[in-house]
């Protein structure tokens, strides 16, 4: 996993005002904000890290990683970045999949 991606998401968890600003922005703006904070990773690294994390989490929870992945149900009515910060990162920490 790309540690910089997860660390950036953790920073956003601790800075709700920044998350609020970025949540409706495009991926390019989010990656630029990450770079401004000193986190350098490519769009591909971001996507790969997030996808890998979701797959690993589903496996750990004994759930299929498909269109009905239960954690995704928490995302409805929210922005994807909010879901990553508040649900995915928290779940990864709770299951011990991240340091």
For the structure shown, list the relevant keywords.
globular, 65% helix, mainly alpha, 99 residues
Q: If you had to describe this structure to a student in words, what would you say it looks like?
A:
The protein has 99 residues and is mainly α. It has one domain. It is built from 5 helices and no strands. The radius of gyration is 13 Å and the shape is globular.
**Count of the separate structural domains:** 1
User: Outline, from the CA principal axes?
Assistant: globular
Q: Helix proportion of residues, in percent?
A: 55-70%
In the predicted model, the low-confidence regions spanning at least 5 consecutive residues are none
Structural class: mainly alpha
What's the count of strands?
A: 0
Largest sheet: none
Along the chain, the helix and strand elements come as: HHHHH
What order do the helices and strands come in, and which of them pair?
Elements: H1 3-14, H2 16-22, H3 27-36, H4 43-61, H5 80-95
Helix pairs in contact: 1-5, 4-5
Task: Explain briefly what this protein structure is.
The chain is mainly alpha-helical.
């Amino acid at each position: 996993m790309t540690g910089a991606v997860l660390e950036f998401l953790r920073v956003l968890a601790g800075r709700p005002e920044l998350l609020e600003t970025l949540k409706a922005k495009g991926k390019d703006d989010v990656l630029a904000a990450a770079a401004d904070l000193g986190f350098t990773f490519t769009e591909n690294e971001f996507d790969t890290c997030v996808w890998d994390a979701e797959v690993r989490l589903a496996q750990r929870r004994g759930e299929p990683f498909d269109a009905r992945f239960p954690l995704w149900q928490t995302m409805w009515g929210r922005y994807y970045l909010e879901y990553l910060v508040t649900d995915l990162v928290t779940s990864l920490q709770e299951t011990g999949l991240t340091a």
